[in-house]
Design a protein that fits this description.
The chain is of the alpha/beta class and 328 residues long. The protein folds into two domains: 152 residues, Quinone Oxidoreductase, Chain A, domain 1 (Alpha-Beta Complex); 143 residues, NAD(P)-binding Rossmann-like Domain (Rossmann fold). Helix content is 32%, strand content 25%. The protein has twelve helices and 15 strands. The strands form three sheets. Strands 3, 4, 5, 6, 7, 14 and 15 form a seven-stranded mixed sheet that branches. Helix 5 links the parallel strand 8 and strand 9. The radius of gyration is 20 Å and the shape is globular. It starts with a strand and ends with a strand. 50% of the residues are buried. This is NADPH:quinone oxidoreductase family protein. It holds the Pfam family ADH_N.
Length: 328
C-alpha cells in the first residue's frame, strides 16, 4: 500500500515521502481500517518537526485521526467488516495511508449524517472544544466566550460549540478573509488581530467586564491579550501554542484579578476517563444531527497531496479543516 512516512525531522513538505510499504495486519484486539478520510491537525506538523510531546520512532506515518471502514477484525476484537468508524491510529502507523490499524476498544461510530471528510473532522477538534468549554471552563449560557484563531480548525469548533451552549461568542482571526469565515461560523463579533485593538474591543463589547471564558490555541501575544481582557473570575483555557511562543503567565496578575488558567490536554482523557470521551461523542453526534455544529471542511486533498496539506496547516494558511481523502 501507499503511506506517507517521515524519515527525519523537519518541515512537513521537506521530510514527508510517499512510500510503498507492506499492508498492516490487525493484531489481537485491533481492527484493520481502510482509510476513507484523514483530518490534518497542527500536531501532525509538530510530529514532523519533532516538536510534539510524543516522538514516535523514525520512520513513522503521521495522521492522528481518520474516518475509516473496517476491513478486518483481529483476534478478540469487537467490530464488523464494513463498519464506518472514527479512529486515532496509534503511531508510528498513522492515518495518511491507504490502510491503518487501531485498537477496537478506542474506535467510535462515525455519525451517519456526516460525509467521510466531515466525520473525520468531528473528532479531536470538537472533543477538545467540548472538554475545554464544558468540563474545564464550565461555560454557561449567557456568558461571553472569546475564541482566538476562530477561523482555524480548533477555533471553528469552539465557536460552534460556544454558540450551541448559548454563549455570546467573540472571534479573533487574522486578516479579512479569515474574519469573514469566523463571521459565517456564527460569531457575534469578529476582531481582526492585524488591525483591531483586541483588548479594547472586547472590553467595549462587554461594557468593561471582559470575556468570561477565553479559548486560546495560539499562545504568545494571544495569551497576553487574553489576560488583559478576561473577566473577574473568568477562565482562560490554554489549548496549544500554534503561534510558536509558549507564554509565561504572570501568576500575580491572576491573583489580583481572580481568574483561572486552565490547561487542556484532551488526549489524556482517553486513558484517564474513556467513558467521558464516549459520552462526549454521543453529545457531538446529537449536536451534528440537529445542525447545531457542522465541521467546516475548506479543502479536500488526495493522498498524494498530504505533505502539502500538512505544510499549509503548519504555515497558518488554511481556514477550517483540511482533509486527506485517499480515494480522491
Amino acid at each position: 500500500m501507499k503511506a506517507w512516512r517521515v524519515h527525519r525531522n523537519g518541515e512537513p513538505r521537506a521530510v514527508m515521502s510517499l512510500d510503498e510499504v507492506p499492508d498492516p495486519v490487525a493484531g489481537p484486539g485491533q481492527l484493520l481500517l481502510r482509510v476513507l478520510a484523514a483530518n490534518v491537525n497542527f500536531p501532525d506538523a509538530l510530529l514532523c518537526r519533532g516538536e510534539y510531546q510524543v516522538r514516535p520512532p523514525l520512520p513513522f506515518t503521521p495522521g492522528v485521526e481518520v474516518c475509516a471502514e473496517v476491513a478486518a477484525v483481529g483476534d478478540g476484537a469487537t467490530g464488523e467488516a464494513g463498519d464506518r468508524v472514527l479512529a486515532q491510529p496509534p503511531l508510528p502507523g498513522g492515518g495518511f495511508a491507504e490502510f491503518t490499524v487501531a485498537d477496537a476498544a478506542s474506535v467510535l461510530p462515525a455519525p451517519a449524517g456526516l460525509g467521510d471528510a466531515e466525520a473525520a473532522a468531528l473528532h479531536i477538534g470538537y472533543q477538545t472544544g467540548w472538554f475545554g468549554l464544558h468540563r474545564r471552563a464550565r461555560l454557561q449560557a449567557g456568558e461571553t466566550l472569546l475564541v482566538h484563531a476562530a477561523a482555524g480548525g480548533v477555533g471553528s469548533a469552539a465557536v460552534q460549540l460556544g454558540k450551541a451552549a448559548g454563549a455570546t461568542v467573540i472571534g479573533v482571526a487574522g486578516g479579512p478573509e479569515k474574519a469573514a469565515v469566523a463571521r459565517d461560523l456564527g460569531c457575534d463579533l469578529v476582531l481582526d488581530r492585524r488591525s483591531d485593538d483586541v483588548v479594547a474591543a472586547v472590553k467595549e463589547a462587554t461594557s468593561g467586564r471582559g470575556a468570561d471564558v477565553v479559548y486560546d490555541p495560539v499562545g504568545g501575544e494571544a495569551y497576553r491579550q487574553s489576560a488583559k481582557c478576561v473577566a473577574f473570575e473568568g477562565r482562560i483555557v490554554v489549548v496549544g501554542f500554534a503561534g510558536g511562543a509558549v507564554p509565561a503567565p504572570a501568576l500575580s496578575h491572576a491573583l489580583v484579578k481572580n481568574y483561572s488558567i486552565l490547561g487542556l490536554h484532551w488526549g489524556l482523557y482517553a486513558s484517564k476517563d474513556p467513558g467521558a470521551v464516549r459520552d462526549c461523542h454521543r453529545e457531538l453526534t446529537a449536536l451534528a444531527a440537529r445542525g447545531a455544529i457542522a465541521p467546516l471542511v475548506s479543502e479536500r486533498a488526495g493522498l498524494d497531496g498530504a505533505a502539502g496539506a500538512v505544510q499549509r496547516v503548519a504555515d497558518g494558511l488554511t481556514t477550517g479543516r483540511v482533509v486527506v481523502v485517499p480515494g480522491r
